[in-house]
Amino acid sequence: MSDRYLSFVNSPWGRRVAQAAGLPQPVPLLRHRSGQAALVNPVIVAGAGRLVEQVQRLFTATDTVAATPATLKAPSTVKVQGAVFDATGVVDVQQLDALYAFFHANARRLGPQSRVVVLGTAPEHCQAAPQSIAQRALEGLVRSLAKELHRAITVQLIYVAPGAEDALDSSLRFFLSRRSAYVSGQVVRLEKPVDGQVAVDWNAPFAGRRALVTGASRGIGLAIAQVLARDGAHVVCVDVPQARDALQQAASSVGGAALTLDITAADAAASLQDHISQHGAFDVVVHNAGITRDKTIAKMSEDAWRSVLAVNLQAPLQLSQALLDHQGVNPGGRIICVSSISGIAGNLGQSNYATSKAGVIGLVQALAPQAAAQQVTVNAVAPGFIETRMTAKIPLMIREAGRRMNSLSQGGQPIDVAETIAWLAHPASGGVNGQVVRVCGQSLLGA
Ligand SMILES: NC(=O)c1ccc[n+]([C@@H]2O[C@H](COP(=O)([O-])OP(=O)(O)OC[C@H]3O[C@@H](n4cnc5c(N)ncnc54)[C@H](O)[C@@H]3O)[C@@H](O)[C@H]2O)c1
């Protein structure tokens, strides 16, 4: 769906009107395109921790177009496209001053749409209280920078567990690229990979891998299928029998296969198992199918309650459990659910939907340790306002508020969710497990 206000404020006249009236001024986000450099460039790498070398190595090893980090101590007038601050060496509150000094000196050097990443050690992995307090404090800094740097600059915090240093590359490649355009203010924890170190072809990471995407005939599901296929996967697209034609079209457009299946059907798990016995287990499973039946609870029918919980929560749970119980996901595999910021913040008229999406977060947290024993990760994305048919149904004024109430002052696109899922699904992302990553432009809801 088109965002007319975004086009308006980016016209010469609209810009003047918005400035004069103090209205939000979103800028069209730059998103990754094939053939583009993998990472933004140049990037300042600063700080004194155990990860600086890892970060530097990433830039020299980048395969598509070489990136050149500039490690600068003094302020300069040269604009950069990103900054990485390694704060793993910060062991007490006083040492947080180094972050003030760095961002104070360099904030204005960050060009529009820059990517900023702060690296830390999660408080639970710190040995002493002063270190754990200082590391926890990084969250406040990162979330504030994400709100105040404007110009579509995104800022994230990655906590890297001791021993997980080598697992950093896939996350840095995502957060320092145009793929993460609509992800900001996020805190991600990296642990030792559940599946050890794997050799990766960064240009076609899913080559030879099989992916299953539910609700793939349109919207976010179609974008997920397209991105996974773009990166080499054979994608099995699932949708309800009523969507058969669109599903066939979607599957053939990505060179994949169509599987008509109502994921709430009593025999859905058995049908999937049949498919697996014929074609093999999956490496990536994305539970994307979802529905809304909005009403305040007093007006909500029992059917509206039950159907939303059945599609959005019970089906992903039953299918995931069946897949894990019967080796339907290969070692090194990934299960990714689609939650929602409604599941984090709650939403008026969405008690059924928010319950189901909060339950999805519970699913991720409950299944992640069990799946890890099979070298499989379980994570979720929680999209905010994404421009699809689902959000087109929202009444105009509420829709407009939903679009603007985030640090980027605009809705995201299905591709933003898809790129985030591709990062979580990546063979080198085995260190990300049990996490919920918001794709919401740092929405104010549930922040
Ligand atoms: N659009 C947003 O802003 C937004 C925000 C947060 C979360 N989400 C979530 O993202 C996911 C995709 O949303 P979308 O906006 O693309 O929705 P959409 O309505 O465009 O697509 C959902 C797809 O799921 C399919 N589906 C529904 N019930 C099914 C069933 N029982 N079995 C198999 N397939 C079924 C539908 O046929 C459809 O193709 C959903 O889980 C949704 O809750 C969307």
Detail the topology: elements first, then pairings.
Blueprint: H1 4-9, H2 12-21, E1 43-47, H3 52-61, E2 80-86, H4 97-106, E3 110-120, H5 129-148, E4 154-160, H6 169-175, E5 186-190, E6 210-214, H7 219-230, E7 234-239, H8 244-253, E8 257-260, H9 268-279, E9 282-287, H10 302-325, E10 329-338, H11 342-345, H12 351-372, E11 377-383, H13 389-392, H14 396-404, H15 414-425, E12 436-439
Parallel strand pairs: 1-2, 2-3, 3-4, 4-5, 6-7, 6-9, 7-8, 9-10, 10-11, 11-12
Bound molecules: nicotinamide-adenine-dinucleotide.
The largest beta-sheet arranges its strands as 8-7-6-9-10-11-12
- List the domain count as a whole number: 3
Mean pLDDT: 93
Which architecture of the largest domain per CATH? 3-Layer(aba) Sandwich
CATH domain topology of the largest domain: Rossmann fold
**How can the largest sheet be summarized?**
7 strands, parallel
Silhouette: globular
What's the Cα radius of gyration?
Answer: 22 Å
Q: What is the C-level CATH assignment of the largest domain?
A: Alpha Beta
Q: Any idea what the CATH superfamily of the largest domain is called?
A: NAD(P)-binding Rossmann-like Domain
Instruction: Work out the helix count.
Output: 15
Question: Describe it for me?
Answer:
Keywords: Oxidoreductase. This is 3-ketoacyl-ACP reductase. By secondary structure, the chain is an alpha/beta fold. It has 3 domains: 1-28, no CATH class; 31-190, 3-Layer(aba) Sandwich (Rossmann fold); 210-439, NAD(P)-binding Rossmann-like Domain (Rossmann fold). It is built from 15 helices and 12 strands. Helix 7 crosses helix 15 (414-425), helix 9 runs parallel beside helix 10 (302-325) and helix 10 (302-325) runs parallel beside helix 12 (351-372). The longest helix has 24 residues, at 302-325. It is globular, with a radius of gyration of 22 Å. Residues 63-67 have low confidence and may be disordered. The structure holds nicotinamide-adenine-dinucleotide (NAD). Nicotinamide-adenine-dinucleotide binds next to helix 7, strand 7 and helix 13. Nicotinamide-adenine-dinucleotide is lined by residues 214-215, 217-221, 238-240, 243, 262-264, 288-291, 311, 338, 340, 383, 385-386, 388-391.
